[in-house]
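Students often ask why inverse folding is considered easier than folding. One informal answer: many sequences map to the same fold, so there is more than one right answer. In these notes we will look at a single instance of the problem. The structure comes first.
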């Protein structure tokens, strides 16, 4: 237990854990969260489990995921990349310093602020801001930022192909290229992976994530195809993978996706990375045909027709248990 003295009755006591599902309303969204409480066994008062962090901050986190907003860590990471303090970064964005400070510390940003920051993260956006900056930065800093802006490469072509709305069919997450390339790189490992198998790994990664957290991992939508569930537009997606991270090797039997450089993994949480690794381990010795057969057994596949979307609601009925599968032999 994190603490032994109850803040309510002031006595030395033990606590029992209780999980409560709570519905929060943020702007126009309803977000269900599991909140963990500790119940004092002497006075029966309940307190938040401090290990879980601020519940409202967690709700904002989910809201940002759904709408594809930047998380506070992403704001901080980009500022760190530019090597600017909050005052300088705010000046570059033409924001109040307090505004940036609040967003970096977990306040929920407005869509206009999110768009502005996102734009600053692109090559053209940053160059434009530097062009119009009215504050006095030393010339060597401006020069450094200008050079840095040239090295930014995030044209986000995949986001145009995928057309994820962050709705039910996307597992309530808006597709983001930076997250997708990180997930894909982990699924393909250093040795590379067959495209047909990658489709199934993505399906399991997304649906198992949804089963646990009510959020998909990538925000991809899946359709029923004769050989199993596949991401909508998967051919276009694989043809447009960013060249700085992936290469396609063509064989007579199919194509393999090879990772040539590791993308930034800090866009994923530790829990997300561990889920992906678990999926990779589970299906390590399972070939594309076998994993396709396994996916045919899922209700989401059996109860949909060719070319129909597979709703994420089927995730709750998924039969697959990762740990059990590890013990099965194929
Ligand atoms: Zn108490």
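Output (designed amino acids):
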């Amino acid at each position: 237990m994190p603490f032994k003295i109850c803040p309510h009755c002031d006595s030395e006591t033990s606590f029992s854990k209780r999980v409560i599902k709570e519905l929060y309303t943020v702007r126009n969204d309803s977000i269900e969260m599991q909140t963990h409480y500790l119940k004092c066994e002497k006075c029966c008062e309940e307190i938040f489990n401090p290990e879980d962090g601020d519940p409202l901050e967690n709700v904002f986190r989910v809201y940002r995921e759904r709408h594809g907003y930047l998380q506070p860590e992403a704001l901080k990471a980009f500022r760190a990349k530019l090597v600017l303090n909050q005052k300088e970064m705010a000046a570059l964005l033409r924001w109040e310093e307090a505004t940036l400070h609040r967003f970096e510390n977990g306040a929920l940003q407005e869509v206009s602020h999110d768009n502005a920051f996102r734009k600053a993260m692109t090559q053209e956006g940053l160059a434009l801001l530097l062009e119009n900056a009215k504050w006095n930065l030393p010339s060597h800093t401006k020069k450094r930022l200008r050079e840095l802006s040239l090295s930014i490469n995030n044209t986000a072509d995949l986001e145009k192909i995928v057309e994820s709305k962050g709705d039910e069919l996307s597992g309530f997450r808006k597709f983001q290229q930076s997250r997708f390339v990180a997930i894909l790189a982990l699924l393909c490992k250093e040795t590379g992976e067959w495209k047909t198998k990658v489709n199934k790994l993505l399906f399991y990664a997304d649906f198992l994530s949804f089963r646990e957290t009510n959020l998909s991992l990538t925000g991809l939508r899946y359709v029923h195809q004769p050989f199993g569930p596949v991401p909508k537009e998967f051919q276009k997606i694989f043809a447009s993978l960013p060249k700085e991270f992936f290469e396609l090797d063509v064989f007579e039997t199919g194509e393999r996706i090879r990772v040539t450089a590791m993308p930034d993994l800090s866009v994923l949480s530790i829990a997300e990375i561990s889920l992906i690794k678990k999926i990779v381990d589970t299906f390590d010795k399972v070939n594309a045909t076998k994993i396709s057969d396994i996916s045919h057994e899922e209700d989401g596949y059996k109860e949909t027709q060719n070319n129909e979307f597979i709703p994420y609601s089927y995730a709750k009925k998924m039969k697959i248990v990762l740990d059990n599968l590890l013990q099965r032999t194929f």
